[in-house]
Amino acid sequence: MKKILFLMMMFLPCMVWASDGVEGYWTTIDDETNTPKSVVQIYEYQGKIYGRVVELFQNKEAVAELPDKPLIKGLDVIWDMEKKKNKYTNGKILDPKTGKVYACDLWRDGDKLIVRGKIAFLGRNQTWEQNTTFEPETTEKPVPKKPRLK
């Protein structure tokens, strides 16, 4: 019995970590200044994962480079991600500064979220930090609003 309890105690943390999903609030980091840029809410809707900008740290009235010039805050920038083993894939990610859309993969690495934007096999990773202090304006579960693209 002691051996079973010992094994459970050894493997329980690994099982808990493996079951951590990607849903929640994540702080994006500016590639050039290495400072916090925004908070993105990653949420599930009808079995797929989406991401919405819920806070900007600098220019709070910044608009996306899209036809109707929507505010970046409130904009869905990730959509249609599907779970495949320990990764989410087959989705899209929008760079609101350029209006460009890329294929996207994302996965969790402890309290970090690795977000990979790519074209074919070329791409780059960003590391987003888990944000446990953000207080949302509403507790309603989001419904995706895919942006109108060029």
Would you give an account of this structure?
The protein is mainly β and 150 residues long. The protein has one domain (22-130): Lipocalin (Beta Barrel), CATH 2.40.128. Helices cover 12% and strands 47% of the residues. It has an eight-stranded antiparallel beta barrel with strand order 1-2-3-4-5-6-7-8. The longest helix is centred in the N-terminal third of the chain and has 18 residues, at 2-19. The protein is globular, with a radius of gyration of 17 Å. The model is unreliable at 1-19 (pLDDT under 50).
In short:
The protein has one domain: Lipocalin. It has one helix and eight strands.
Name the descriptors.
150 residues; mainly beta; Lipocalin; 8-stranded antiparallel barrel; 1 helix; disordered N terminus
The number of helical elements comes to: 1
Q: Which structural class do the helices and strands define?
A: mainly beta
CATH C-level class: Mainly Beta
How many runs of DSSP E, i.e. beta strands? 8
The separation of the N and C termini measures 63 Å
Largest sheet: 8 strands, antiparallel, barrel
Helix content: 10-25%
Shape type = globular
Question: How would you write the strand order of the largest sheet?
Answer: 1-2-3-4-5-6-7-8
> What is the oligomeric state here?
single chain
Q: Radius of gyration from the CA trace? A: 17 Å
Q: What portion of the residues fall into strands of 2 or more residues?
A: over 45%
Q: Could you tell me the CATH topology label.
A: Lipocalin
User: What's the CATH architecture name?
Assistant: Beta Barrel
Rounded mean pLDDT score: 88
H/E element order: HEEEEEEEE
Please mark out the parts with pLDDT under 50 across 5 or more consecutive residues, or reply none: 1-19
How many domains is the backbone divided into? Answer: 1
